[in-house]
Amino acid sequence: MHSVKKQMRVRTRITASPAVAARLIREGRVVAFPTETVYGLGALALDERSVRMIFDAKGRPADNPLIVHIGAREQVKELVRKLPKSAERLMDAFWPGPLTIVLPRSNRVSDAVTAGLDTVGIRLPSHPVALAFLRVVGVPVAAPSANRSGRPSPTSWQAVQQDLDGRIAAILKGPRSRVGLESTVVDCSGRVPVVLRAGAVSLEELREVVRGTRSASRADVEQGRSPGLRHRHYAPRARVFVGGETPARFPARSAWIGVGKAPRGVALSESCRDVRAYARALFHFFRRCEGVGIRQIYCQTVSTRGIGAALMDRLRRAAAGSVKPVG
Ligand code: AMP
Ligand code: MG
Predict the structure, then answer these.
(1) Ligand 1 lined by 117 (C-beta under 6 Å)
(2) What are the structural domain ranges in the chain?
(3) Which CATH number describes the domain made up of 4-222?
(4) Phi, psi of 54 (to 5 degrees)
(5) For residue 121, which atom of ligand 1 is closest to its CA?
(6) From the CB of 185, is ligand 1 less than 6 Å away?
(7) How far does residue 169's CA lie from ligand 2's centre (Å)?
(8) Protein residues near ligand 2, an ion, with CB under 5 A
């Protein structure tokens, strides 16, 4: 048995080999791997004991479901009871890629993965290392983001190591994540697709494929349709300010991130080329700020078009209340 306690005694192996990582996961162990969105923390999706180890390693609340990652589209069949036309069209358009599709689950998928929901979220990632790994594993892999619960999602293998060294069997190394924010989650179990979490695939893009797609209402969230939204995610140790006036004089140990030129007087800053680059940089920047003891992080507001919606969603949650509404 590989409990987290037992794993605490071994050093987490860092490997560049999908085959090595695949062997460990097939033994029932927990392995982190790169994807185009953020790094994932994987275990065998159809093995309940393996899945529970993910929750242990992360300290994740058991009411927050995991996304099931697959290396080939045929694998969807064994995971679901029903495959609506809308879901097939979204798969045609956006898979492999940063879109998670929620569908009525089959009885092969346990409550441990879905947190007791009657649906399962499935994604076929596009990252070549992720695909190589998932294809060698050959069976579905459940994987949330590879951070300790409540910490920013990791966009590099070093960030995974920072959070989970000694708690997981291995980290499969890859480059920095290209998207830098988690996948878009769209629920196709009802009459029309509903976006439960904004991500790299925007509502506008989804609507081009399935016209009626809408974003989640307050009622959807309150009915527990999107459990992830109830939790305070993405919380760096510093205070995060979004959308307010930047102060005439920054307090000591302030940082700034945004598009264009950084203001003067901050201890650390990141000027991004555009909104996409800002999204890619955000979580990495939060971690850098922690490394040098930043106390306040000022984040520029962006328009909620395209990936801007996902970026503003993550910023709001990081700020957890200190954000001013944007138009
Ligand atoms: P993470 O991989 O850490 O970003 O977490 C996965 C997120 O996907 C959860 O927090 C949920 O918001 C969402 N999710 C996964 N499965 C489902 C599902 N069956 N129904 C609704 N949302 C889901
Ligand atoms: Mg997460």
Answers:
(1) yes
(2) 4-222, 239-318
(3) 3.90.870.10
(4) -65, -45
(5) 16
(6) yes
(7) 19
(8) 145
292-309 tens-digit pLDDT: 999 999 999 999 999 999
Write 206-211 long-range contacts (CB < 8 A, 24+): 206/90, 209/89, 209/90, 209/92, 209/93, 209/94, 210/86, 210/89, 210/90
C-alpha 302 chain-centroid distance = 20
Domain spanning 239-318, CATH class: alpha beta
64 lines ligand 1 (CB under 6 A): yes
pTM of the complete model: 0.93
Give residue-wise pLDDT tens across range 13-66. 999 999 999 999 999 999 999 999 999 999 999 999 999 999 999 998 888 899
Do the first three CATH levels of 4-222 and 239-318 match, i.e. the same topology? no
